[in-house]
Amino acid sequence: MTPVVEIRGLCKSYRRGDQEVHVLMNLDLTIYEGSFVALMGPSGSGKSTLLNIIAGIDRPDSGELRIAGVDITTLSESALAQWRAENIGFVFQFYNLMPVLTAFENVELPLLLTSLSRRQRREHVEMVLDLVGLTDRSEHYPSQLSGGQQQRVAIARALVTDPTLIIADEPTGDLDRVSAHEILDLLASLNGSLGKTIVMVTHDQLAADHAHVIRHLDKGVLNDADQPAPAAV
Amino acid sequence: MTYLLRLIFRNLFRHPLRSLLTAVGIVVAITAFGLLRTTVDAWYAGVEASSSSRLVTRNKNSLVFPLPLHYLNKIRQLDGVSKVSYAEWFGGIYIDKKNFFPQFAVDGRTYFELYPEFVVPPEELKSFLLDRRGVIVGRKTAAQYGWKIGDLIPLQGTIYPGTWDFVIEGIYRGIDSKTDETQFFFHWEYLNEITKKTNPDNADKIGIFLVGLKHAQDAPLIAQRIDALFANSLAETLTETEKAFQLGFVAMTEAILLVIQAVSFLIILIIMAVMANTMAMAARERRAEYAILKAMGFTARFIVGLILGESLLLSLSAGAAGIVLIFPTARDVGARFGTLFPIFNVSTQTLWMAAGAALLVGVVAGVVPAWRAVRTPVAEGMRGMV
Ligand SMILES: Nc1ncnc2c1ncn2[C@@H]1O[C@H](COP(=O)(O)OP(=O)(O)O)[C@@H](O)[C@H]1O
Ligand SMILES: [Mg+2]
To answer: What is the CATH number of domain A33-59+76-228?
Structure first.
């Protein structure tokens, strides 16, 4: 199995006033293609920081970082932006859809950075909206959708460019149990049937139960060893 | 591109009331700006309309001191002088002090020859010359007071005491929109005739000589020669071009003009602050959205386009409305000023300045939030919201 994320000796700290906060300390992590990884840990343990570094929206202080074979620490800002457009799909706790765009337009948004024609874009958007079960809501604005529906639009948006990696930071953190279940089932099925690699941050045991691999982050250290690659299905 | 425009448009209408209030502010500011600039222009209108091929000779000490009429012949005989006329400020009151329009006692035979910009129908000019109390009045003043030919107009003298009766014999039009159509001309001889009886010391004296030149480029030389003629006499003269003479008048009120100009720029500055606040508020609310767009791989250019585009769309469309509104308001205000400002026209320069101000407001208001949105690291922008 091919590793998608390879992290060796990664360090990240922030300055707060004259104090240095070591968020990630000498961290190793390998994530294989097609796996569904849950990153768990208490609040403030550095989960989001790690996820942001993997997604190329934050930079490590030191250490090795390869995503799908590319050392993204060497990319310039604009090259990194383009790399994200091609390789990363984002899902956030508060959905973060554009409130002035319909569900359809929100999903179409990342495709504007590709060379797809209008017709091709429409096909892609319709396909992923169907996948998340929202075809009949495509002309709705986010304010006209429930939290669970908004999160499904966000997942469709993350999926539409067919990225290497889907990054989800507490995707069920703002949802009721029923909607949370639906979202987790959806992510699990995207992983299972489409083989999407998903890295999800959560502190919800229910959420973690849907993943193949659970890693615990505490005080900047992953305290369980790298697990083997998932068995081929 | 169409997506960007769609986003800009929809963002603009996210808080309709806030956008509307800001737009109204810009409309009012741009209109007020245009109106104030037009007022300043109106002040300088006399200078604009003045000719550089005519000289004005006045008493060297002050405009309030007269010159003897007999200077006329000496000036007339100079080489390069085509025609000489003269005028005297009357300063009478028509019914009420606030009914202001300029009144001049002039030499009826030469004055209108020297001022072809005052167009008088020939038969009206003829009857004016035959009537000792005759008046040629500008179209604007005649219209303002509803005067017709043959009307008897009494003016209360201030410099020349008593009630003076005049008869409207003609109404002149300006040759173009720059010409003052508010003036009131009557015969200096009528004035002098009465003065001779009531105040003989002041008789045979006039305020200014108006000197027509054969060639405009001779102006400095001839002005010098005229003044040389009367050097070391009891009433020394000061001769300058009509333009310089008019500028001298404006200079007396320059301080007011500076204040008006300062206020016009201050208005733009204030609306700039209001607009900058609107844009900053909007950008602050949308911090997470900009962060998400950047996370998805949208470039800084897109984010700048989004913010600056919205700012410019608002300022330019409201600015355009403000510019359109300058015309009716200027017309209305000009009418209210009546004959106080003979010329009250919106100049092209004013329009360009108003458009430039709207553009500047949009750019300044958008540039800071755009810069901030671009500079904020993605992870930072999503902090606390994601
Ligand atoms: N930009 C930053 N500046 C300063 N401190 C930060 C910054 N980002 C994160 N931190 C700190 O790093 C630690 C880990 O944050 P985070 O990765 O968000 O934790 P988690 O997602 O596990 O709750 C926290 O103590 C947080 O305050
Ligand atoms: Mg977090």
So the answer is: 3.40.50.300
